[in-house]
Design goal:
- The complex is a heterodimer of chains A (272) and B (429).
- Chain A has 13 helices and no strands.
- In chain A, helix 2 crosses helix 6, helix 4 runs antiparallel to helix 8 and helix 4 crosses helix 11.
- The longest helix of chain A is centred in the N-terminal third of the chain and has 28 residues.
- The relative contact order of chain A is 0.14.
- Chain B folds into two domains: 189 residues, P-loop containing nucleotide triphosphate hydrolases (Rossmann fold, 3-Layer(aba) Sandwich), CATH 3.40.50; 122 residues, abc- transporter (atp binding component) like domain (Coagulation Factor XIII, Chain A, domain 1, Distorted Sandwich).
- In chain B, strands 5-6-7-3-8-9 form a six-stranded mixed β-sheet, with helices on both faces. In chain B, strands 10, 13, 15, 16, 18 and 19 form a six-stranded mixed β-sheet that branches. A four-stranded antiparallel β-sheet of chain B has the order 12-11-14-17, with no helix packed on it.
- The longest helix of chain B is centred in the middle third of the chain and has 22 residues.
- Chain B starts with a strand and ends in a 19-residue tail after the last strand.
- The chains are: A mainly alpha (272), B alpha+beta (429).
């Protein structure tokens, strides 16, 4: 673990430069430039808001557009970090074949790139909160912790996925589909409160309700999105009960994912 | 402590395509059950290679295509991992393996310098400090803010080389990068490499097919063949061995299939070309300093008036050595339609041991090319019995008379030599 941190520190300038490359390259010949980073969450927010006007989703005390935007921010950050991370090794074939530096630099760079885009979305979130007259409290200090946790969750997927993708490109194809499914299993369109009401209060699935809820929160994004909304919008501390199962899962899988990546790394240049 | 220590290094690749999911799963199942899995055949790219390099040594690695040179460099640069054996490297490595690997076409020269520098392990501060020097060396000041995609390929390589060689590393690994840019720039690169080698005391590993360059730059050379280390020693000695091997290979190729380059207007056809001995019989080999007689039989489709005939020799890599033209003769015969045979004799063919080739050209009286043929026949020149004691760094084999303290001595070769005293410093280098 220490060596991982040491490596990261040694190569911080490389990560920064490569992330800058990714950002600069994506927006270089685009007239709107970096504004494209906010197009996706804003569009999805508008669509969800439109859909909600037909089906009716209870958003509690928080206006629905802000609530869903605050859900989309960590979600899109996770989704894009994971899918870009998975393709990052194969996408950098020329570098892999020509020069050595720790290969985890590639997935980590993908996450870093997405962090920058996430930062831009905070501007939109702040503007929306100001529009609705919402003021963040001290609880907002949790935000960095929640984002760090999201980074780790994304790395679980991208380290393992990137390594397998070198051997079987199917992973790169399948992941977007799987992630789209996962979005519906995460409290993006609806707040977590609705799930809790159904399963914990109304015991909708009978004696299985408790188990189902734990299964639901095993998805780290469930806890992450809810916690993010709580600390930024509801001025509450994060709901640790919803966070815990996902955290256990990430804590268990991250070392495995990393070790698998490091083991496979030695053959990247031969196989890719 | 050696800078690089390689012991019993082997690298195997599986031949054929990557296994599908089904095969992988089947094999995993078989292994679990303790039964042998179905494996694809192995290819040994490196086979039990061991050597060690001390700090400050300049080592060249030579060998034919597929000898394992690049695989070896990849192991040293940690890009690929050994199947067996180990590689120990003490110090920072700067691999100049195919410069410009990380160039992004959409970025400007300036941005690419920073990006490539970072990829090669330089910090931003370091690049800032060296930026002007890099741009100066690449002669790119004017274009540094233009996207690289608008550069010529030569410009790209120049910039990439400038960045790559500005890395401060104890160990430089160079793979065929000196052949970049125009001649003037190649000279500059060569000087820069030399400077790095001589004054900065770096350990340098060079892979190149340019054996002459290796011979000049390296103190020690490793010869690889089919994944094995065949020879490791003094540059001159190993390069010579390689040349001899190469020449024999070329000679055997030439014997099997003619790689002749022929351009003909259709008016002339080559029937036979051979090197003949004093008895008129074709031979493959002559002794350095003896006569070389080339006999050519050709057929003309039409009468040619006063044609100019050229017979010459060149090395197997097309450096023209000798050439004799009938244009210097005051009167030249006309050639009728039909078969003809001519012969040209070079008295005292002065080339040192090696394999050379013959060219034959016919021009008409207006110097229009009727027939141009190169590499028409190869022949071997061998040196008399003293070969092993001869100086290796030479291309000409000329008789010499020594004036040493107390005794005068002639080189004792070839009765046919005219014993002209030649100043000893005039020997070719």
């Amino acid at each position: 673990m220490l060596r991982v941190a040491q490596n990261l520190y040694d190569y911080r300038e490389l990560v920064a430069t490569l992330a800058w490359k990714n950002i600069a390259l994506r927006y270089k010949q685009a007239y709107l430039g970096i504004a494209w980073a906010v197009i996706k969450p804003v569009t999805l927010m508008l669509i969800f808001t439109l859909v909600r006007s037909f089906v009716g989703i209870d958003s509690g005390s928080v206006p629905y557009p802000v609530l869903t935007f605050a859900a989309l921010m960590p979600w899109i950050f996770f989704q894009e970090s994971a899918s870009e991370g998975v393709n990052s090794v194969v996408g950098n074939t020329p570098l892999i074949k020509k020069i050595y530096f720790p290969r985890e630099i590639f997935p980590i760079t993908s996450v870093t790139t997405k962090l920058i885009e996430l930062g831009i979305n905070f501007v939109i979130l702040a503007a929306m909160m100001a529009w609705y007259g919402m003021v963040p409290s001290l609880h907002a200090l949790w935000v960095p912790v929640i984002i760090l946790y999201t980074v780790l969750a994304a790395l679980v997927v991208s380290l393992f996925g990137a390594a397998v993708n070198v051997y079987f490109r199917d992973v790169g194809q399948a992941l977007p589909v799987l992630l789209n499914l996962l979005m519906y299993a995460s409290p993006v369109i609806y707040p977590l409160q609705l799930v809790q009401d159904k399963l914990l209060q109304q015991q909708a699935a009978g004696e299985w309700s408790r188990l189902l809820y734990t299964l639901y929160t095993l998805n780290p994004l469930a806890g992450i999105i809810d916690a993010f909304q709580s600390v930024v919008l509801r001025n509450q501390a994060p709901d640790l009960g919803a966070l815990l199962p996902g955290m256990v899962l990430v804590a268990a899988l991250l070392p495995l994912s990393y070790l698998y990546f490091k083991r496979a790394e030695a053959y990247f240049a031969d196989v890719i | 402590m050696p800078a690089i220590e390689v012991s019993h290094l082997s690298k195997e690749y599986r031949l054929g395509a990557l296994q599908g999911v089904r095969q992988t799963a089947l094999n995993a199942g078989r292994r679990l059950l303790g039964r042998p899995a179905e494996e694809r055949p192995l290819f040994k790219a490196l086979d039990d290679v061991s050597f060690s390099i001390e700090p400050g040594e300049v080592v060249g690695i030579i060998g034919h295509n597929g000898a394992g040179k690049s695989t070896l460099l990849k192991m040293l640069a940690r890009i690929s991992t050994p199947t067996r054996g180990s590689v120990k490297v003490n110090g920072r490595i700067a691999p100049l393996i195919e410069v410009g690997a990380g160039f992004v076409p959409d970025f400007t020269g300036r941005e690419n310098v920073y990006l490539n520098g970072a990829i090669l392990g330089m910090s931003k501060a370091e690049i800032d400090r060296k930026f002007d020097e890099i741009v100066d060396f690449a002669e790119m000041a004017e274009f540094i803010d233009t996207p690289v995609k608008r550069y010529s390929s030569g410009m790209q390589v120049k910039l990439a080389f400038a960045v790559a060689t500005s890395v401060d590393a104890e160990i430089l690994i160079v793979d065929e990068v000196l052949a970049v840019g125009d001649l003037a720039f190649q000279r500059k690169c060569f000087d820069r490499m030399n400077e790095a080698i001589r004054h900065q005391d770096r350990t340098v590993l060079i892979v190149s097919h340019n054996i002459r360059q290796i011979e000049r730059m390296c103190s020690r050379v490793i010869l690889m063949d089919h994944g094995r280390l065949v020879r490791d020693g003094q540059a001159i000695e190993v390069c010579d061995a390689f040349f001899r091997g190469s020449n024999e290979k070329i000679a055997s190729y030439a014997a099997k299939a003619s790689h002749a380059r022929i351009r003909s207007s259709g008016e002339a056809e080559l029937l036979d070309i051979s090197i003949v001995g004093s008895d008129g019989e074709p031979i493959d080999e002559i002794v350095a300093g003896s006569d070389l007689t080339v006999r050519v039989r050709f057929r003309l489709a039409d009468r040619l008036e006063r044609p100019e005939i050229i017979v010459g020799t060149h090395t197997t890599d097309f450096v023209y050595l000798t050439g004799a033209s009938t244009a210097v003769l005051d009167s030249r015969p006309d050639y009728e339609r039909g078969d003809h045979e001519i012969a040209a004799t070079f008295g005292h063919y002065p080339l040192s041991a090696g394999v050379y080739a013959v060219r034959f050209v016919i021009h008409d009286s207006h110097r229009r090319a009727v027939f141009v043929g190169e590499n028409l026949r190869t022949f071997k020149v061998k040196v008399s019995a003293t070969e092993a004691r001869e100086e290796g760094l030479r291309i000409l084999d000329l008789p010499v008379t020594w004036h040493l303290s107390g005794m005068d001595a002639d080189s004792k070769r070839g009765e046919r030599h005219a014993r002209v005293p030649v100043p000893s410093q005039a020997h070719a280098d």
